[in-house]
Amino acid sequence: MSTGTPDLLLSTAPFLRAATTTPRIMREVLVAALLVLLAACWNFGIGALLVVAAATAGAAGSEWLFTRAEASSPLRDYSALTTGVLLGLTLPPALPLWMAFLGGIAGVGLGKLVWGGMGQNLFNPALVGRAFLQAAFPTAITTWAAPAESGARLALAPGLLAAPLMTASVDAVSAATPLGLAKFESQITDLGALLIGNTAGSLGETSALLLLLCGLWLAARRIFDWRLPVSTLLTVAVLSTVFHTLFPESAPPATFMLLSGGLLFGAVFMVTDPVTTPTTPRGAWLFGLGVGSLVVLIRLYGGLPEGVMYAILLMNALTPHINRHTQRRPFGARS
Amino acid sequence: MSAAAAAKTFRGGVHPDDHKRATEGLPIERMPFVDEYVMPLSQHIGAPSKAMVEAGQAVRRGQKIAEPGGFVSTALHAPVTGRVSAVELRLHPNGKMMPAIVIEADPYDSQQLPDAEPVDPSRLTGQEMVESVQQGGLVGLGGAAFPSHVKFQVPEGKRVKAAVINGCECEPYLTCDHRLMLERPESVMRGTEILRNQVGAERGYVGVEINKRDAIDALRAVAPKSVEVVPLQVKYPQGAEKLLIDAIFREQVPAGGLPLDIEILVNSVGTTVALADLFDGGIPLIERVVTVTGPAVARPRNLVVPLGTPVAAVIEHCGGLLPSAREVIFGGPMMGMAQKSLEVPLLKGTSGILCLDRGATQPVREYPCIRCGRCLEACPMFLNPTRLAQLARAERLDELESLHLMNCFECASCSFVCPSHIPLVQWMRIGKAMIRHRKESK
Asked: Considering its fold, how many domains does chain A have in total?
């Protein structure tokens, strides 16, 4: 074999790259979210799939409509689908589909596109969509359906297919969520039910066990910064233990706080969104501290039984400041 | 305690696949002599050497052919016995046409080096020793090619407490230092002693990554009491001198400063062996060990190659490029330089010839930054590469300086780890160039 000078490429160092790519990161998060969706279908019936599909259609549709001019990008596609699925998983099982669809459009439109697209947004797009729905349809979004009976998984709640803009209320068999029971009726739900997910709540508030496994899996594969969810959950655990010790009658114990509501779902899928959370390791700890504290305070003293969404959105607003003030001292800097 | 747990390291860095299996077990072989050698006058940092031969002149292998061009400069020596055919512009691996001494080898000569009396460096004064090293053409063989004698001259009022030998070879693919430590450990220790005595350091340290266990054992077997072999975690860029010092001593060289500021001297294994050869054998720098490797060369190997050998001949000796070859790189895959023409010669600073195929050089798609923070975790200088790249794009030079861009030594850990394939280190280079340009035009 001779070196008959082949046409050699000229590029610059480095000539090696790490295996993880951004589309792959998005794809793995999407797969984990779909696993949670499957569990949600098991708990709440086939309606869960329709709600998430509607939210995803709104999210992905508006993303594709407004970025038509750009070249097709697997990253953009996975990101739009993930936002839609995650938004869908924060919604109640019997939410009218047209509302879920609108939520998807609001989430991607107001939460991402107007900021400049991928990587430019300040707030978590899925949570922006949910906040929009909370403000626009407060009754519908807080009407929780009971978990489906074994034989009724394929049945559809009539309210799901309500015509758009016709009714403001949800037609479904409603049930109180564990957090609602805790706040308004001082009733602590059995931990076993929480672990398996056999409780009322939003679609993502299913099996705590499954969510923990998803979280550990994604953390082990270094898909997200482990400090973000660990800091959040640790803060909730410590703070709720403090309150429970001081006010054992009105403040639930840490185990209940950790396993109920959207905290685990938020910790695994929302708090770990890289775009809207600090880039520095120290900043990640602070972010989790803030989210954890706000969740406990809102749950105990706020008007709503659940505070994960607002806690995260508020901390998203502080992320640029956290980033600026947690930069490491450069190597060799004089102290 | 397991070796990995005991091994020291620095904060940050990345873990590329080390790709050393192809050549780490291959003993160093000698590259046969070829017809023509091209010796560029600029093979080191600092002023180019000044040619002292002319076309038609006969030269002997090891004969000085160029004088140092200043203090931060060094001499050049003929790699073969033959005749100078020209002193003219030739293609340099940096891509430019630069002055070079071209020597036609004498095919009938034995190419034996003349016998030389060993010189005991401890009999020389400090100044004489520095002179000898400069006249011997020694430069940092780890890749930087900084004239070694400059480091050996300790300025008035300063002292050196430790001499550190860099045996890390953290760049993937390269195994020349590994083989040198394994095959010539006594020379490594001899060079360390010469170094220690010259600068007056009480102790010597040889830092070696633990993927070279056999080299660690070989060195420990012949190390004198004053020299400690320190196993280090396998991580890139452990071999960068500031990080090597941080790992061994837990001390940080001040930003913008030198190891001398904290009384430490660092030299690579290759330079240390060359130092021993210079004084014990009278051999100036006329050849060096190179690893020829990569998925697109037929027979990867470690070779000791005379300086000035055209890389085409070296690759030919290794079986030639495979049809899949796409890129040939001088150096390692993290900081090396791609070559367009294979007629360029091997220089003092060429540690490796990497032949990459299509798989390794696939053009990658760039995605937006998702602020994942991997580049911040990887940067060994604790900078914020994604922010710096953003600022460089926007040409905000004052902010670049205030965020310490000038501390970046372009190790490329950030580009390596970025999942969006953003050309971070390239933006660093652009930013630094803009700042330098602004300083010069003031």
From this structure: 1
Do A9 and B339 count as a contact with CB atoms less than 8 A apart? no
- The b-or-e profile of A161-179 (16+ CB within 10 A means b, else e) is ebeeeeeeebebeeebbbb
Tokens 């931060």 sit at which residue?
Answer: B72
pLDDT tier at A174, thresholds 50, 70, 90: low
Residue whose structure tokens are 């150096």: B331
Does A12 sit within 8 Å of B335, measured CB to CB?
A: no
Where are chain B's structural domains? 3-25+127-281, 374-440
Q: What is the nearest CA distance from B105 to chain A, expressed in angstroms?
A: 22
Residue A210 domain-assigned? no
Look up residue A39 and give its amino acid: A
CB atoms within 10 A of CB B197: 14
Helix (DSSP H) and strand (DSSP E) numbers for chain B: 14, 17
Query: Which residue from B313, B308, B317, B344 is spatially nearest to B329, judged by alpha carbons?
Result: B344
pTM score, whole prediction: 0.90
Q: What phi, psi does B364 have (nearest 5°)?
A: -105, 150
- Residue-wise pLDDT for B268-282, tens only, equals 999 999 999 999 999
Chain A, chain B: beta-carbon pairs less than 8 Å apart: 167
Q: Which residues of B touch A21 (CB under 8 A)?
A: 367, 419-421
Q: A280 vs B326: CB contact, 8 Å cut-off?
A: no
Domain assignment of residue A121, given as a range: 22-175
DSSP, collapsed to helix, strand or coil, labels residue A24 as helix
B-chain residues within 8 Å CB-CB of A10? Answer: 327, 338-340
Residue A169, chain B, CB below 8 Å: the answer is no
Q: Is residue A53 part of a domain?
A: yes
**Cβ burial, residue B333 (10 Å; 0-12/13-18/19+):** buried
Q: Give the pairing type, strands B301-306 and B29-30.
A: parallel
Residue B251 tokens read as 């001390």
Res B23: pLDDT = 95
Instruction: Inspect the interface and report whether the beta carbons of A118 and B417 lie closer than 8 Å.
Output: no
pLDDT value for A169: 54
Flag if A73 and B367 touch (Cβ within 8 Å).
yes
Q: CA torsion angle for A250, A251, A257, A263 (degrees, to 10)? A: 90
By the CB < 8 Å criterion, does A3 face chain B?
yes
- Let me know: does A235 contact A46? Beta carbons within 8 Å: no
Cα(B356)–Cα(A8) distance, rounded to whole angstroms?
10
How many Å apart are CA A229 and CA A272, to the nearest integer? 7
Q: In the numeric block, which tokens belong to residue B186?
A: 């006594």
Q: Which CATH number fits domain B3-25+127-281: 3.30.700.20, 3.40.50.11540, 3.30.450.20, 1.10.20.10?
A: 3.40.50.11540
| Residue from B353, B359, B356 nearest B317 by CA | B353
Please tell me the distance in Å from B424's CA to the nearest CA on chain A: 10
Element containing residue B181 per DSSP (H, E): helix B176-183
Return the pLDDT at A75: 75
Compute the nearest-CA separation of B389 from chain A (Å). 15
Q: B42 is written with which tokens? A: 């600029």
Contact status, residue B137 vs residue B284, Cβ threshold 8 Å: yes
List of chain B residues with pLDDT < 70: 1-6
Distance CA A111, CA A129 (A): 7
The pLDDT tens digits of the residues spanning A295-333 come to 999 998 887 778 899 999 999 999 999 999 999 899 988
Question: Phi and psi (nearest 5°) for A100?
Answer: -60, -40
Rounded Cα distance, A127 and A103, in Å: 10
Check CB contact of A71 with chain B, cutoff 8 Å.
Answer: no
Q: Are A96 and A167 in contact (CB under 8 A)?
A: yes
Q: Between chains, do A1 and B368 touch, taking CB under 8 Å as contact? A: no
pLDDT digits (tens, 9 = 90+) for B69-85: 999 999 999 999 999 99
A273 within some domain: no
